[in-house]
């Protein structure tokens, strides 16, 4: 009888454990409340910012830990959020470009899908912008009304609340505003910004927006407390990347990628705390690590394709000594940079050194008086060397010691004392790019044709993508070393179109020093790949050619695929700015054509220019 009773109890308990997640089991798994703000660097009192008024986040920092070296892998919302939702570096998937809508392989689960399969109630309130085809179905709720309170009783939750108060669109003060918390004349400006009333007002207003965002955080934390859930919930706070003032968002310096991150872990899970409440955590972490960290905290297995290292929880990994950062196209403007950031140094490799950091980003110019003011000061010759650098071609490499140079003004890349450090950071960067099979070396206009019926991720993972050889050529092409011209000439004869492309880019970077390659470049104007033709056409502008390259660009602009068109428009605008193609000719090429987004932006800009 006793045996039968025990068997019965065991059977019932097993059934309950398998089928009915009880309140006891739910309590064994933490809830996660993730509060995110937009476009802000660590402008918080708890991060030492003396201009900040952020009492609620400061209190959260006292109760939790602050990460001194937390980074968005990409400095713009959509590409950063791709990394967050997929747990993969965007440049592995081909989604390092802003608003690209690239498909990812079937079978790759987004992190809310993984958590939901494990029994979590997952809500998103409410921004998506994942740089992927719309996937609201991955959440139990995704709307402005989404809330953890709608879950089933005893069900653990994972809830995201996103505050747009600090977004770039909120930088500019309303016309006539005078009630700034800190008067604009008392603002401390970064050295790369000229001192103008517009820049001071934007900075002053932005700090007001930070205070408003902090109040929103306070209300969410109070709501959690009143619901009696604070002791069952791990709270994360971070911004989605740096910014939002000019020179921040969109750029791989700390001003664009360094984010505040605070984590509060309740007493019942104190064994997972990486430091005591109120203390700093020094090791670098980045967004690619967040999904795997959530899985580790929630007791969920991580899918094999996820690339991050969990930095908290039962499956906490070996901590990083650096993070990997990347950027590509922003709206309609192309750039290509990769970076390594450790606790002390930032190393950047600019794969488009012929393009300045400060291009005509339509949205930024429309939204921010400070951006317009900075550019006007530059054109008027009133910017000093530091302030002017933003609008000029970049160095091939950059290295900064962050402790002594937080605004990354003094480039140490040419310092002989840093020779060993540069070599080591180059090695680390190359290893990261090879490990993820970085798609950023492939022009966006080539993606569809190279991928065929598969995704660009699948192509990049295959042997058809000779990445090591391409990186070798790209490194030479962007070195501005005229002695490397024989290697570029050889690259322009390569059977692989991406290698030929980088050979032509190398000539473009060399400008007039590429004169011995002129005939080879003229031949590439007939290449079967439009991106190769575009690079050759722009390079030929520096070698005295105008109409023939312009005609090639016109053909691509009128007949090419969307991203071939955008690339050709960028080249046409650059040739116009350099005086290689007359403005009237450039306007003639784009006038009267109905372009898709974002190609319409470059066309509108060209047509807005005065002759």
CATH architectural arrangement of the domain at 12-299: 3-Layer(aba) Sandwich
Count of helical stretches: 24
Q: Termini, distance in Å?
A: 100 Å
Strand content: 5-15%
**Global structural class:** alpha/beta
Main sheet properties: 8 strands, mixed
Low-confidence stretches: 1-25
Q: What is the CATH top level name of the domain at 12-299? A: Alpha Beta
Q: According to CATH, what is the topology of the domain at 12-299?
A: Alkaline Phosphatase, subunit A
Q: Widest sheet: strand order? A: 5-4-6-1-7-9-2-10
Q: What do these coordinates show?
A:
This protein is of the alpha/beta class and 611 residues long. It is globular and about 75 Å long. The protein starts with a helix and ends with a helix. The N terminus is likely disordered.
Quick structural gist:
The chain has 611 residues and is α/β, with parallel strands linked by helices.
Topology:
Layout: H1 2-19, H2 23-27, E1 31-37, H3 55-63, E2 65-67, E3 70-71, H4 77-86, H5 90-93, H6 111-117, E4 121-125, E5 141-142, E6 157-163, H7 197-226, E7 233-239, H8 254-257, E8 258-259, E9 261-264, E10 280-281, E11 285-286, H9 290-298, E12 322-327, E13 337-342, E14 345-350, H10 362-367, H11 369-379, H12 385-388, E15 397-401, H13 419-436, H14 447-451, H15 456-461, H16 467-477, H17 485-491, H18 497-510, H19 518-524, H20 530-541, H21 547-559, H22 562-577, H23 583-590, H24 599-608
Parallel strand pairs: 1-6, 1-7, 2-10, 3-11, 4-5, 4-6
Antiparallel strand pairs: 2-9, 3-8, 7-9, 12-13, 13-14, 14-15
